[in-house]
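Slack export, channel: ligand-projects

TW: morning all. Re-posting the request from yesterday since it got buried. We need the structure predicted with the small molecule present, not the apo form. The ligand is zinc ion; the SMILES is in the block with the sequence. No rush, but it would help planning for next week.
GE: picking it up
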Amino acid sequence: MKIAIAGFQHETNCYNPTLTELDDFVRADSWPELLSGEDVLRGTRNMNLPIAGFIEAAEEGDDTLFPILWCAAEPSGYVSDAAFETISSRLLEAIGTGQQFDAIYLDLHGAMVSETYADGERALLRMLRAQVREEIPIVISLDLHANISPELFSLTNGLCIFRTYPHLDMAETGARAYRLLSYIFEQKPLYKSFLQVPYLIPLHAQTTMTGAAAEIYQTLKNQPVVSADIALGFSAADLPNTRASCVAYAKTQEQADQTCDTIKRAFDMCQSKFDLTLLNVEDAAAMTLAHAKPKPLVFADVQDNAGGGAYSNTVHLLKAVYQHQCDSVLMGLFCFPKLAAEAHTLGVGGRFEVTMDATELDRNGGCFVAEGQVIALSDGYFPYSGEVYGGGMATMGASAALRFVTDKGWIDVVITSIKAQCLDLAQFTHLGLIPEQYKAICVKSTVHFRAAFEPIADRVYSVSAPGLLPCDLSQITYRNLAPEVRVLDGANSV
Ligand SMILES: [Zn+2]
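GE: finished. pasting the full token output, ligand included:
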């Protein structure tokens, strides 16, 4: 096969008012910068990225790849029309009518919203389908947090979705997309089925490592299909297609339809089993004070996750542990570029009045002021050590570790200049901070942190504090969801 490959990824948080501009796709963050042509092969190799898995699988065969471009921006607000037009035009022009290709593979997210298009991927696929020859198969891979419309499904010949949250199988999903494309290319009989599942599940309850989601994903095993997948949906978008969904490809229509029905029934059976528990910050602080076991407690500030489009700078949990005079607490990552620069100017050992004011971006973000000391500095550029960002380099910009002394000990806080989700131990260890040595670790992440932090934790808790990534869905008024969608919003405190 001669396969055109490209990637254009964005998870759009519609509650974040900051537009995602072209430059956000062009520069590197936790993933590479915009890559063109052969650089797509070189720049993604050995990374946990769908396109990397696709490339590796394709290179094992006799296929020829025509890399066009690959780009991703950290989740944030609506994609600007300029960014969407520029990137999609480059992609569409390079593919043309597809005359020189046998197939097309796209590495997409599935929750992209631009200023003009409520469903960015559907808009892109409509344009692509309109210009390429009908017989050319188009296969795509999507994130588990995709809100999939029936039309997006029908515009593609094959669609694969991550099966794990934390997303440990991004590269593996790309490899599965390649295998599905190979199957389609051999023109064996293939029937497809798609079903939107009427549940909106908060992200902190979506972990596939345990509980209801793990049970639902078990149903993918032993189905009579060539390929089947589930998307759990993305709650930070009040749109008609926001919800879970499933896809199946099988040798008969009946098998494909039955598989989707089986998955839907699994959701119906498990809908009350999702763990929606959210602690409040006061309880998290009290538990930290009382904690006496050797391993740390891990508290996830789930609604202020940069990886879900939040600002990663709210201070409610920090204020609570400081006011309770907790000792031995590690917290990250707070994005305050000016504060990071101030710490770099002062140097290690410097003491100053630290102001962490999140209200500049969000009036609910809170402000924390206290005397602090710079205990470590870095350029924020280092190799990730965990599986989620496996193979990638961190690009956090000028970063600093600050120490706030309390009655009983201290609270260490990591400040960055570029937003990054706190999910990898190296984000602390590269500054000389050893997470295992603290009584409590507070991470701004929703679920991805679990891959690296659960193994070192005594217990893990989700904490509810203000932030732009809605997890306590009882606080959200959705206006545009399909009427049959049931929002799982039974958030409760313990
Ligand atoms: Zn995701």
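GE: first-pass observations. The two ends are 56 Å apart (CA to CA). DSSP finds 14 helices and 21 strands in the chain.
TW: perfect, thank you
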